[in-house]
Amino acid sequence: MAGAYEATGEEFDGDVVRAWIADDPDPATAAELAVLLQDAEGAQDADEESWAAARAELGDRFRGLLQFGTAGLRGELAGGPHRMNRAVVIRAAAGLSAFLAERLAGRDGDSRPFRVVIGCDARHGSAVFARDTAEVVTAAGGEALLLPAAKPTPLLAFAVRHLDADAGVMVTASHNPPRDNGYKVYLGGRIVAGPGQGAQIVAPADREIAERIEVVPSVRAVPRRAEGITLLDDGVEDAYLARLATLVPREDARRNLTIVHTALHGVGWGVAERALRAAGFEDLHPVEAQREPDPDFPTVAFPNPEEPGALDLALARAAETGADLVLANDPDADRLSVAIPSPDGWRQLSGDEVGLLLGAEAIDRLIRPSGDQGGQADDERAPMLAASLVSSRALGAMAEARGVGYATTLTGFKWISRTPGLVFGYEEALGYCSDPEAVRDKDGISAALLFAHLAASLKASGRSVQDRLDDLALRYGVYLTAPLSFRVADVQLIADAMARLRAEPPESLGGAAVARVVDLAEGSGEEGSLPPTDGLVLETGTGDRVVVRPSGTEPKLKCYLEAVEPPLAPARDSGSEAPPSTGEKTGTFREELAAARERARARLNAMAADLRELLALA
């Protein structure tokens, strides 16, 4: 029925809008649309500005049903088919239920109903959307398992595998602005086997679910039943925390580390606190103004730890407490940002730096003192590390040097988590999959626990996180990365910029000739192993690289810049992970490392300047 709700530009059909209003189960969004329709159908000369604005707004809201994007739905909260609201969610739940029922129909000897576990964060509308989904699933003959409200996304991802669910739904818009919400879908149980079990949906399942959503005639046609929903208690959270406890060694003594944590007004603090205290971290200092969930995110411009200023309160708290470490989760706690002390105050690590540090720890766990590899993944494949193609190439260089398997994937954890034999995967946008056997998605809480353990271990040996980063750079090379994003009001500007870049790629970037251009829309990877995606890779003769792609969740064009300098003290063999020798030679190495970083930083700045001029979006 998508076509029944479509409009072109600012044109709309008043009868279609009235039909939607009559079918809307939410009085608030129905009333909102009624006001817009009244303004749009009123006399133009009465208030031309309001008249034009209302017509444009209805034209946008009725330009088709909100479509599945990154693992589900995401959009602005408002009435109409192209927004996030109860009517759209109920249709999505009906389409998902139909997909699951059809996939499982006719299985000999297995008459169990399809099982869906459902969770939500604390955003506006999340709890209602989760309850609506559970009622649709139950009425469709499925088993709906509803997690307690306002819980982290990693808990839902864990529950899909832990409860052997055929699907999972998480109502969240992660780090998007307050006006947004979303609907992430996971498949597992009897629907998906292998390394994708419990991961976010990919093609063709996303298209098949979308097709079933489109044929739902109306909300009134969708049965809902409140009776029969299973309301889960804290048992899933307890099991998740028990699993986290296995990721770090037991510590009898209190760990000597002072940690500041911010939840950015999200749902991460309660579970993160339990995990850290269980591991022996007692000196915890939450940012009080951001500790409890608040869907309006009043202290930040954007509730995204990547955004400038998002960690200001946490860094101020760290200065007050003399902290050793700052840990920041995004609002649904599937991402982690880290800040460490530096000579100039505090330095926020990039996602690539955190990914490299956690990846090095994963390799250390895999490689035994004899050099043999251990720790087989749950699917009995050879252990693998993975990162998305927009992330730094440093992890791959380290894995190759130490004899560990490595894979490059498309952007997003729906791809990273499907790597056969995965033991650790990450993406530069602050996402880390540290325990894929239990959670096939990014998990900011397990990453926080593992990073705290690393920092405490380094401190106990008289070393710092920066020392560890220096050691890795000396051994495997300097891989300096920087993001460059262009947020636009009109997404057509992004399409136009990509078209210009494909038609006329630059001959040079940052003073070096562009030696290779890869159009990701034509497929990429070894022998075209990666599916097509919208993006372009530009590599220079010096080994530097830029990846340009539209964001999958926001109106942004994103550029991922990387400048590379070769290793200064390469490892002697695959098992060698000792720091450089002490004394005068170490001092020389550090000076050379600082110079290498400056060279790389200068090239990054030059590439960024070239891209701003080339793309003409700033």
Q: Can you walk through the features of this model?
A:
With 618 residues, this protein is an alpha/beta fold. The chain is 37% helix and 19% strand. The chain contains 18 helices and 22 strands. It has helices spanning 14-23, 27-41, 48-61, 86-104, 126-139, 153-162, 205-214, 235-245, 269-278, 288-291, 312-321, 351-366, 394-401, 413-416, 444-460, 465-476, 492-503, 584-615; strands at 72-76, 115-120, 143-146, 167-171, 180-187, 199-200, 230-231, 259-262, 284-286, 325-329, 336-342, 345-348, 384-388, 405-409, 422-427, 431-433, 478-487, 508-509, 512-519, 536-540, 545-550, 556-565. Strands 1, 2, 3, 4, 5, 6 and 7 form a seven-stranded mixed sheet that branches. The protein has a six-stranded antiparallel sheet with strand order 17-22-21-20-19-18. The chain has a five-stranded mixed sheet with strand order 9-8-10-11-12, sandwiched between helices. Strand 8, helix 9 (269-278) and strand 9 form a beta-alpha-beta unit. Helix 4 (86-104) runs parallel beside helix 5, helix 4 packs across helix 7 and helix 9 packs parallel to helix 15. The longest helix is centred in the C-terminal third of the chain and has 32 residues, at 584-615. The protein is globular, with a radius of gyration of 25 Å. The protein starts with 13 loop residues before the first helix and ends with a helix. Mean pLDDT is 91; it is low at 369-377 and 572-576.
